[in-house]
Amino acid sequence: MPKGQETRDFIITKAAPLFNEKGYSGSSIADVMLATGLKKGGIYNHFESKDELAVAAFEHNWGLLKARYAQALHTAGESPTAQLFAAIDVHVGFAEGEPVVGGCPLLNTAVESDDGHPLLRERVREAVDFWRDLLRNIVTRGIAQGEFCIADADEIATIIISTLEGGVMLSKLYHSPDHLLRAAAHLRTFLNDKLLL
Amino acid sequence: MPKGQETRDFIITKAAPLFNEKGYSGSSIADVMLATGLKKGGIYNHFESKDELAVAAFEHNWGLLKARYAQALHTAGESPTAQLFAAIDVHVGFAEGEPVVGGCPLLNTAVESDDGHPLLRERVREAVDFWRDLLRNIVTRGIAQGEFCIADADEIATIIISTLEGGVMLSKLYHSPDHLLRAAAHLRTFLNDKLLL
Amino acid sequence: MPKGQETRDFIITKAAPLFNEKGYSGSSIADVMLATGLKKGGIYNHFESKDELAVAAFEHNWGLLKARYAQALHTAGESPTAQLFAAIDVHVGFAEGEPVVGGCPLLNTAVESDDGHPLLRERVREAVDFWRDLLRNIVTRGIAQGEFCIADADEIATIIISTLEGGVMLSKLYHSPDHLLRAAAHLRTFLNDKLLL
Amino acid sequence: MPKGQETRDFIITKAAPLFNEKGYSGSSIADVMLATGLKKGGIYNHFESKDELAVAAFEHNWGLLKARYAQALHTAGESPTAQLFAAIDVHVGFAEGEPVVGGCPLLNTAVESDDGHPLLRERVREAVDFWRDLLRNIVTRGIAQGEFCIADADEIATIIISTLEGGVMLSKLYHSPDHLLRAAAHLRTFLNDKLLL
DNA sequence: GATGAATGAGCCTTCATTCAT
DNA sequence: GATGAATGAAGGCTCATTCAT
User: Fold this and answer.
1) N or C: which terminus of chain D has fewer CB atoms within 10 Å of its end residue's CB?
2) pLDDT tens digits, residue range B130-147?
3) Which residues of chain B make contact with A155, given a CB cutoff of 8 A?
4) Whole domain around residue A177: which residue ranges?
């Protein structure tokens, strides 16, 4: 791997949690300089603009989350039930700063970008689309395999995502994992009652 | 008669949706100047700092939401069941920019402030505390009056708030009320199944 | 005395030490508001501009100093020797914040105004002219009355003023009366040796 | 080669007389922009704050003065008497804008900073300490070498500094070197009479 | 005579960005 | 590929001043 790519990745690695914690408007290139030890020119060598860096940082954070999902699904094995529960557990990590400090990048970036940053908003949308697809597919497969009863997979995805993200918001606000844990527990009960056969 | 108070209120009225849409860091005093037609000094005559204005704007938005809750509860009458459903319906309005454009100020402000703006965060916390109290009280009263079965009122509040706020996030992200409507529908079913006798 | 004049005097009384301590550029109308409890309009009712107020404040401080001189000379009686020594003693008071906090207004205002505030500079010059006159007159009278030997009265005045003002500067800088006391002692010895018969 | 250092020095060179003439409060970054031809950012690339620039400017002015002292002492040779008289002569230059326009930076900065700018005040104090040391050392050496009679060296330093600085104030106020020249002449006579054997 | 409200210019400082080296 | 130096615009805030009430 060429040196340039390495530096670029290094910058992203440092900028990603920063943007996740302080937001796009709240983070400055000076913050990134501090976090990386690089000078302005060094950063602009790898990114054309703060926007490009912000997008890359978001993609990095989202990549970390996606990796957790992949790993969770893999560990869960073939069972849609196990997979669905594993997927929920991944999100609970945000209460402990995992896999990235500052809470869920989807929530953070969605809330900041939905009224004025189309570029970032588009990326968040793609990420949430991916997440919804992932959940929908598990549900659809669960139904097909006779593990789940008939249900609207998209609706289930909405419910899971809504409940988890709202739970993240509360847990971050109160600096306590309790709310997120309750939200996850609620989801498990809900799925047990309404989806599992 | 107090012209000063009128101007102060006028500024707040204009700044409140602005801050709700663009966030604290994303909004500048220049934006407020544009929105109000006042000059910098005219604004600083009424607010000591951007912080003070931001807090006032948040309180204004939260006041609008609180008023909706009061009205909804009043319209719902005495029944805890009716009140709980009415409370949920209030939040659905955010999908249509009601009672303030830019989505739920609690969600927006919580997400922006939880990693670095203690002043605002404190205010959001107080507001969410109020909301949780309101929901808890309805649940507690429902149990006492024999309308609800035994349940952890605080847990119910967490579930309702999480689901709604996550739904607002999704609906804002997709510019569509669907997700929020689904989240609300889910809550109604959940409450019917698990809380109502 | 009309109410207006009273208020004007009150403002001056409060502004005078403020300007003496913080200087013309370093003091703001807001400072004067704070010191007086009046609002902007209340101050501008009595002074057309900050300049006018600054001049009035300087004149007030200078008036306090002049009064000390008058009193000292009066107490000293007719003897030019006693008068000269009394005049020196007056200035020593500045080490203790007397008759105005912030040091000698002549020194302060001269140093700030000599490179850019002609209005104030003119006033300081008049004040120092007065002081020089006072000293010269004592010397001249002392010579005429045979108490002093022949000397250049203007030169004597320059030496006294220079030494005292430099002493004030040092004592203010070191927050200690020592330097000013030494300067005054030096002047007394000098006069005893060189002027007194 | 270090362009940055050059620019920094250039800024200081231009800002130093400006601050000496108009004072810290009386000088603005805009003034420095005008004096240097640089833009705001260009200045802030080299100084973290106006304070830092002000301190640098003071140190520059003080450096010029110190250099004059060094040169004067060197030219004067070994004799304490010659050195003492040379040191006095250095200060007389301020009447002609030498080595820096705007008068003595020690006097100017002391008078402005003693009631509210601790950072600058500290620097002035160090500078005056240096000057006092220099004078004290000459006196002490003069006594040791039998050129001077027994005397309190610190007292002599106070008298010399007070008289010169007061003289500078008067000469600046009257835009005439006369007062400072008289003050210096007085010092020479005083030293001849009281110190020299 | 005093206030409160408004202004326009200015304050110090930071912003994202560019580019010669 | 990284730096250091520069910029123009914008940041939040304070200034002295005016004037209707």
Assistant:
1) N
2) 999 999 999 999 999 999
3) 182, 186
4) 50-194
